[in-house]
Amino acid sequence: MGYKAPIKVSLSLGAGAMTPWVNSATRFFGRPTQLPVASPGVPTRVYSPVKGNIRGVIYCLYSNTTAGSDEPWELFLRVNDTTDYSIGAVATTGPDRIWSKFDLNIPINVGEFINLKSVNPAWATPPSDGAGYYAQGTIIIDTD
Fold first, then answer.
1. Vertex 25, ends 64 and 141: CA angle to 5°?
2. Residue 131 maps to which CATH number?
3. Which of 28, 35, 65, 103 could form a disulfide with 128 if both were Cys (CB 3.0 to 4.6 A apart)?
């Protein structure tokens, strides 16, 4: 038997739209074609095709309308609707909000699922509702 190098697998994340904006609301999303929901569940799940460890995640939200005020906006990676891992908080009035964390070591098995959990801030000026929001992200998994 020879050495078998681990491979990296990337999973795409997204949200059909990020509106409406509700102060202090918790929302769940992940599957690129699905809208965020107020309760975790099947529509937002992204399933792992491999056994390994989640090493990183990046999620980008772009606004071409009013991006809102700069209160910290928290994002979590959620595994199997039970365990949340902080990706961090972003505070900006700019059009790009980017959450990323690449020092993770989260075990994952084939068929387990992942989604994102957003905890909206209590904005002084909320983002504008409308179709001007684009969201995408990637999860990186190292296989065993």
1. 75
2. 2.60.120
3. 65
pLDDT at 132 over 70: no
- Looking at residue 130, what is its pLDDT? 58
User: Domain for residue 4, yes or no?
Assistant: no
Domain membership flag for residue 27: yes
- pLDDT, tens digit, 9 for 90 and up, residues 28-38: 988 888 888 88
- Whole-Å CA distances, 65 to 85, 102, 125, 127, 129: 30, 29, 13, 8, 8
Q: Is residue 8 part of a domain?
A: no
Please report the pLDDT score of residue 19 as a whole number.
66
Neighbours of 29 (CB within 10 A): 26
Each residue of 113-127: pLDDT tens digit? 999 999 989 989 888
Is residue 35 within 8 Å of 93, Cβ to Cβ?
Answer: no
| Number of domains comprising the chain | 1
Domain that holds residue 100: 16-143
How many CB atoms lie under 10 A from the CB of residue 80? 13
Q: Is 116 among the domain residues?
A: yes
The pair of structure tokens assigned to 40 is 């975790």
